Amino acid sequence: MHVATGKQKHGEARLPVEDNPPEAGEELPLRERMKRKFASEAGRDVYRMRKAIVEPVFGQIKEWRGFRRFSLRGMENVRGEWKLVCLTHNLLKLFRSGYLLEAC
């Protein structure tokens, strides 16, 4: 899992990660471990892919579907509402691609 550890504006240089190895038997805090993961080339490549994998879908749902907040209360109801939003989003994508017409 990759989680952002701070904010950085476009064009700003990355701050160097401190290279202080932990003492024997000491574990680094979660935020520090994540910073070190992002400092590696593999970590940057994985995090860079978020723009192509997940984040555009949330933007499309918010912009195209106008979905900004849940109408129902309670975790179970919210999960059901979110599944319905995702279902309609995916069905619209299939319809616009023409896939559903070809399958019939």
* Protein structure class: mainly alpha
What is the C-alpha radius of gyration, as a whole number of Å? 20 Å
Tell me the helix content: 55-70%
Largest β sheet strand count, sense and barrel closure: none
Number of strands: 0
Order of helices and strands: HHHHHH
Oligomeric state of the chains present here: single chain
> What is the helix tally?
6
Strand fraction equals under 5%
Low-confidence stretches: none
Q: Shape, please?
A: elongated
Number of domains: 2
Amino-to-carboxy terminus distance: 40 Å
What is the average per-residue confidence, as pLDDT, rounded to a whole number?
A: 78
Task: Please specify the SSE layout and strand pairing.
Layout: H1 30-39, H2 41-48, H3 50-53, H4 55-64, H5 75-97, H6 99-103
Describe this structure in words.
- The chain has 104 residues and is mainly alpha-helical.
- It folds into two domains: 18-48, no CATH class; 55-103.
- The chain is 58% helix and 0% strand.
- It is built from six helices and no strands.
- It has helices at 30-39, 41-48, 50-53, 55-64, 75-97, 99-103.
- The relative contact order is 0.08.
- The model has no long low-confidence stretch (mean pLDDT 78).
Write a concise keyword list for the protein shown above.
104 residues, mainly alpha, 2 domains, 6 helices, elongated
Structure described in brief:
With 104 residues, the chain is mainly α. 58% of the residues lie in helices and 0% in strands.
